[in-house]
Structures are given as structure tokens and as C-alpha cells.
Amino acid sequence: MKNCTVYKTMNIVGKRWTIPILLELYKGEKREKHFNELKRKVVGITPKILSVRLVELQTEGLVEKYVGSSVLPERSNYFLTESGEDFVKVIQEIKKWGTKWKFENSECDRSLCRYCDI
Amino acid sequence: MKNCTVYKTMNIVGKRWTIPILLELYKGEKREKHFNELKRKVVGITPKILSVRLVELQTEGLVEKYVGSSVLPERSNYFLTESGEDFVKVIQEIKKWGTKWKFENSECDRSLCRYCDI
DNA sequence: CAGGATCCAAAAGGATACTG
DNA sequence: CAGTATCCTTTTGGATCCTG
User: Fold this and answer.
1) Contact: A103, B1; criterion CB under 8 Å
2) Residue nearest D1 (alpha carbon to C1')
3) Which tens digit of pLDDT belongs to each residue from B14-43?
4) 20 to 30 Å CA-CA from B105: which of A37, A71, B50, B66?
5) How far is A78 from chain B (nearest CA, A)?
6) pLDDT of residue B2
């Protein structure tokens, strides 16, 4: 069972805050976000957990960062990789299932939901 | 954020053991499984957690049971509802993502993986 | 600004035994 | 057979403060 692809994938993305972080990185035109920007927008997350999740997501290849050193203080810019963008599509399937079977939510019926922007 | 469909859906299906249970219920021709049958096949799960998860899944409408009383001792038969079956399709998307981006797994490349049978 | 360190509370889950 | 009950360990994450 531990060798199952679904199991292993869920161990990456099934943790608390992971999906909100991915969605926040997906939102808007600007696809790069700074650490504190994420901390502000992912409401309720603490810096510790955000840091831990970002490391995990980088390790797993869904997120990358680069450190802009032209201006001080340095800023870390996080963005979705191709696999990260692709995972947002899976999240969209989760959302479709939820709206179909469970949650009547007029927000989510709009093409861009204000909660998750997908 | 707590009002987000994705968030709420993940609270239902994101818990440990939930997906293995759903997949076990999906497997094979016989779509009804007894409690101890599930306990045996979902390797490693304890009766307590299995019981808790089955209640959750019934509450959320993904699983139903009926108790056969013609033979004693009584047997509980668990099976996927329509929404439960439909969620398996979401799991298939998760699997596709995993095999595409993360895990080369010859098992999972087959149409029926021996771990999850999807 | 970006994050690491600490300490603590709560939750989740495992082991095991037990019962109608 | 189908769970419940109990106890305990582990994990997780929250709060907060600190630093280069």
C-alpha cells in the first residue's frame, strides 16, 4: 500500500495548508509571491508551517523559488512549477466533485471563486 | 477559507485511511464488503479507525451500509454510493498526476494496479 | 524581509482487550 | 462478526519570539 502512487501523492499534497498555498500561488496575474505575501494571503497560517510546507513543495518539485539579490533586503520569490500548475487541475476536479455532490456554493459556481480563484 | 468547497471536501476525504477504504470498496466485482473483510484488506488499519472512517463516510454520503439479518451473526455490508463512485474518478486524476510527474511505477501504469485497482 | 528556534496544546492514530 | 473502550504514543500544528 505504501508503494501506491495515490498514497504517495496524498502524502505530498494531503497535508494541512498545502492546497491553500498552491492555490494562492496560482492566483492572479503575478505568479511569483514573496514569503510574507503568502503569509498574509493564506489567512491563519504561521510562518513556521508556511516555511515547512514550502520546503516540502520544493523538495517534491511543485514549487520553486529564486532569491532576488538586486535589492536588499533579499526577497524570496516562490512560484509554481509545471507539475504544480498541473496539480491545480486536480484540485479543480476536487472542487467539481464538491460542488456537484456536497456544497451548494454560489461563490464556487462562478468561474473564479473568491476563495480559491479556480 | 473555511467556506471554500475545496477546503471542505478535503476535510472529508483528506484523512488518513479514507482513500484506501474507498478504493477497497471500489475493487472487484462484488461491490459490498463486510467490516472484517475491509479490515483484512486495508492492510494495517485498526478496527477503531476503520469504524470511525466508515461512520464519517456514511455521514458524508459516500458510503452506505445495510445489515443483513437473515443469517446470524449479523453482517454489515458496506458499499459506495453514487457520489462515492464518482469520487473514485477524482482519485484516478490524483493517480494520473502522480504517475506523470512523480512516480514511475510499472504497477500503476497498468489499467488495474494491484495496489488500488484503478 | 525571510525564516529558524522553542515550547506547548491538541489531535490523531496505534495497540490491545473486550462485548453483544 | 462488528464493532467499542481504554490507554498511550506520536504527530501536528499553533503561539511566540528571535535573528541575520
Assistant:
1) no
2) B73
3) 999 999 999 999 998 888 999 999 999 999
4) B50
5) 19
6) 74
Considering CB atoms only, which of B4, B10, B95 is closest to A6? B95
Q: Give pLDDT, residue A74.
A: 83
Domains of chain A: 5-115 (1.10.10.10)
Nearest-CA distance A43 → chain B (Å): 8
Among chain A residues, the shortest Cα distance to B117 is held by A4
Which residues, at least 6 apart from B64, have a Cβ–Cβ distance to it below 8 Å? B58, B78, B79, B81
pLDDT digits (tens, 9 = 90+) for A29-50: 888 999 999 999 999 999 999 9
- Name the residue among B38, B70, B108 with its Cα closest to residue B116: B108
Give the mean pLDDT of A59-72. 88
* Cβ within 8 Å, pair B14-A12: no
The number of helix segments (H) and strand segments (E) in chain B equals: 6, 3
Length A48 CA → C7 C1' (Å):
13
Per-residue pLDDT tens over the stretch B57-85:
999 999 999 998 777 778 999 999 999 99
